[in-house]
């Protein structure tokens, strides 16, 4: 019987796929779709990184929500007049309602919205990055890396599943556990997995193969938030990331790789978690720390086998409108 005291993540409800052949009714088409993200959200960060690495900025437009939600969830209060300038909506929930009138479920990011109709296409956060890597190849930039190589997919999927269960979702299981037993189980599984990942990465630069894959993207988005929010806010406090030498070096290596750190906004991350999760942090006070300067220090992992982009090349700098504030 399932433990009702354990955090349960709801599955994505809208999982339409956008494919090269359009066989499922949603064809790949430049300029047709808008990716809606919160820079605070790790699940959205996955899609942001994939879009950057593959050079899809001009093919898939980007909307960034306010990191602070209200009772109607993600909102476009960062934009003039509080409306997304392309979709013309104030709340992402409006695209959900355009897809399913009367919808009362959760509103999550990332979300892909059909620009002409304003209808939500997908909120399938687990599969959007792999689809961007495999179905959108005709629109990839020259030199785009293969983030989901066919020969490695079985291993990538296996590693990604372990990371999702124990790390990506594991920190939430710790933070939102409703009794000591549920918390203890999640805490143990989280750090057992981090220890296993440290061992795996001790002699290899990336999780699977000799270049970055979606498996690395999946792990990075939790590691980059670990000390800023998960260690204290979610009580994941056996160690800080900075106290786990292999994972800290691995995370810095990725952060300093074009396409990773340039998608991360620590201000959005901290304000979202500490201000929105009032059941965990009733005061809404956002802590001043931690010191972020370590993210740009040398990591030494260039000595390990592998190169970030395989046979590909780094992405160019992000468009001016999509740049995040520098570390302070």
UniProtKB/TrEMBL annotation:
Domain GST C-terminal per the UniProt entry, residue ranges? 146-276
Q: Where does glutathione bind?
A: 74
Q: Name one GO molecular function term.
A: glutathione transferase activity
Pfam families reported for this sequence: GST_C_2
Q: Which residues form a coiled coil?
A: none
Q: Which residues form the active site?
A: 41 (nucleophile), 172 (proton donor/acceptor)
Q: Where is this region: Disordered?
A: 285-328
Q: Which PANTHER family match?
A: GLUTATHIONE S-TRANSFERASE OMEGA-LIKE 1-RELATED, GLUTATHIONYL-HYDROQUINONE REDUCTASE
Please identify the protein, giving its name as recorded.
Putative glutathione S-transferase
């Amino acid at each position: 019987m399932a433990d009702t005291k354990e955090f349960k993540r709801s599955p994505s409800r809208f999982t339409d796929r956008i494919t090269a052949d359009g066989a499922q009714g949603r064809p790949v088409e430049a300029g047709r779709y808008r990716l809606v993200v919160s820079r605070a959200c790790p699940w959205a960060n996955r899609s942001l990184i994939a879009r950057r690495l593959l050079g899809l900025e001009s093919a898939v437009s980007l909307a960034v929500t306010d990191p602070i939600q209200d009772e109607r969830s993600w909102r476009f209060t960062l934009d003039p007049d509080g409306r997304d300038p392309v979709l013309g909506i104030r709340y992402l929930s409006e695209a959900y309602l355009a897809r399913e009138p009367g919808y009362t479920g959760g509103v999550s990011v990332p979300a892909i919205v059909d620009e002409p109709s304003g209808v939500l296409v997908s909120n399938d956060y687990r599969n959007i990055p792999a689809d961007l890597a495999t179905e959108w190849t005709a629109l990839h930039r020259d030199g785009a890396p293969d983030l989901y190589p066919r020969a490695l997919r079985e291993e990538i999927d296996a590693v990604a599943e372990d990371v999702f269960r124990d790390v990506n979702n594991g920190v939430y299981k710790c933070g939102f556990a409703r009794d000591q037993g549920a918390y203890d189980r999640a805490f143990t599984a989280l750090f057992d997995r981090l220890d296993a990942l440290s061992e795996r990465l001790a002699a290899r630069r990336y999780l699977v193969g000799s270049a970055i894959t979606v498996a690395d993207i999946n792990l990075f988005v939790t590691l980059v938030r670990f000390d800023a929010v998960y260690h204290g806010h979610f009580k994941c406090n056996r160690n800080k990331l900075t106290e786990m030498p292999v994972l800290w070096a691995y995370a810095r290596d990725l952060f300093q790789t074009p396409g990773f750190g340039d998608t991360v906004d620590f201000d959005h991350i901290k304000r979202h978690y500490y201000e929105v999760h009032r059941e965990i942090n009733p005061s809404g006070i956002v802590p001043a720390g931690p010191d972020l300067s370590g993210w740009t220090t040398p990591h030494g992992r260039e000595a390990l086998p592998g190169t970030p982009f395989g046979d590909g090349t780094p992405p160019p700098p992000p468009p001016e409108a999509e740049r995040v504030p520098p570390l302070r």
